[in-house]
Design goal:
- The chain is 80% helix and 0% strand.
- By secondary structure, the protein is mostly helical.
- The longest helix is centred in the last third of the chain and has 53 residues.
Length: 178
């Protein structure tokens, strides 16, 4: 549907992710040279004092280095989700070379998951799920940010004219609270 292509659809993405998980559950996830290179770079930077090595990077490195067992789809998706949801604040608190290494790791990880989905015959579904979820989350974030701006602007204007009690009533009415 056109609306889903523009705004995304987290529910449909969830259905597709479940389909992919069922098909790819036994497909080994390759930890590629690109992933190892980015992991090594991030760890080197941290060892040299660079700020901001995310905990998920350390946990992933320990998992693939110390456990003599293939990485499963479910486990890989949990790690990838945690890498992909690092906030803007977390990236801003990283040294620029660290942010670059983490970004390269996330990109290589995404490629590895896509390859596993394709090997399982559900590459198209995985791609569609990623797009739908990403767009839905972007619009959700946009809406939350827009609401905060509206609250700030109306609150400031109303406070000047109506006092704090009036501002509260205006915001409550706009938000639909009773």
């Amino acid at each position: 549907m056109a609306v889903g292509k523009v705004f995304g659809d987290a529910d449909k993405a969830g259905v597709l992710f479940n389909k992919v998980a069922a098909a790819a559950k036994d497909t080994p996830i390759e930890v590629t040279d690109e992933m190892y290179t980015a992991l090594d770079r991030a760890k080197e930077l941290a060892a040299a004092g660079a700020k901001g090595l995310p905990r998920v990077i350390t946990k992933f490195f320990n998992r693939v280095s110390n456990v003599d067992q293939e990485l499963t789809w479910e486990e890989a998706r949990r790690f990838y989700t945690n890498v992909s949801i690092l906030s803007g604040n977390e990236y801003q608190s990283m040294a620029p070379p660290m942010a670059s290494a983490v970004s390269k790791f996330a990109s290589a990880f995404s490629d590895s998951l896509r390859a596993a989905a394709e090997a399982s015959g559900v590459g198209d579904e995985y791609g569609e799920a990623m797009q739908l979820y990403s767009k839905a989350k972007s619009w959700h974030k946009f809406g939350a940010n827009a609401w905060n701006v509206i609250k700030d602007k109306i609150g400031t204007a109303a406070a000047a004219g109506a006092g704090a009690g009036g501002t509260y009533e205006i915001l409550r009415a706009l938000h639909g609270s009773k």
